[in-house]
Amino acid sequence: MDERLWQIIVDSFPQMLGYGIKVTIPLTILSFALALTVALGVALVQYARVKVLRQICRFYIWITRGTPLLVQLYIVFYGLPKVGIMIDAFPAAVLVLGLNEAAYMAETIRGTLESVSPGQLEAGYCVGMSWTKIIWHVVLPQAMRTAFPALSNSMISMLKETSMAATITVMELFRQAQVINGRVYEPLALYIEAAVIYLIFCTILTWLQHRGEKRLGSYGGARA
Questions:
Q1: pTM of the model
Q2: Any idea what DSSP says for residue 88?
Q3: pLDDT at position 222, please?
């Protein structure tokens, strides 16, 4: 490796890492928070079998899972201004990433809700609990504990998908790699370097996921 290339790698690493910490991580956290909120609502509507709302939720899931994330980003950021709706790049990325992932997470949560024994609903009614209280205090805690690994995987996937935000000018980790490459034209080294930073972030999230699973497993064992 020549001295010039090594210097480029050394200089670019803190720049990309900085944008990863300042932009990519917050983008992931905010998008995941939105996704989890929407997914929970959509899953509960389907679990409750509210007829009209359930159909709306199924339509949302069908549309979102059936169209590419990149197309959705372009529609929101480049398309909506044509009808007078202007959304800045970062909020647009949060909105699209969140709503896109929510469609997948909603199905995960719905499946875990339905895996909880119906007898627990009946037991709750017998002791005078309302449907809302049964869901909040009995069904949902069990369902979310079961869904935790899948939801954690969704967050890891979302972190990698934030690189798509570069296509709508969000200056995140991958976009910074593109900018630096535009100056020095060393795509192989710079994009491998960006991949290594994503790998570091994902490894940390995977470690946190395993810690969370162990704690939930211990909690479940203690309850048993």
A1: 0.92
A2: -
A3: 42
